[in-house]
Amino acid sequence: xxxxxxxxxxxxxxxxxxxxxxxxxxxxxxxxxxxxxxxxxxxxxxxxxxxxxxxxxxxxxxxxxxxxxxxxxxxxxxxxxxxxxxxxxxxxxxxxxxxxxxxxxxxxxxxxxxxxxxxxxxxxxxxx
Length: 128
Description:
Layout: H1 16-25, H2 29-37, E1 43-44, H3 45-52, H4 56-68, E2 72-77, E3 80-85, H5 88-105, H6 110-127
Antiparallel strand pairs: 1-3, 2-3
Helix pairs in contact: 3-4
């Protein structure tokens, strides 16, 4: 039995159209940069604007779209609003897209070298 059938990972999945909308939402470099900036912790609009090199107004517009798509969530502290990723899936999706992009430019991408180094360290520790 295929374990993926219950998770919606089949061609007949009712989630395919929604997945396309997620890809469409992420088809913008500023939004990808925002998600990368939010990988580890929540940030204010001004801090995000500095990190992605855009104006706070532009970042706010992107965040509003990401919030409507339920990719980011907010927390209010007084008059300040802090943004965070709504779940781990956007983080993983963007990381995988960056890794795929690395494959287009490098025969041995950095993420594979890190995996190989980690595997070698585990093997070395097991043999010690």
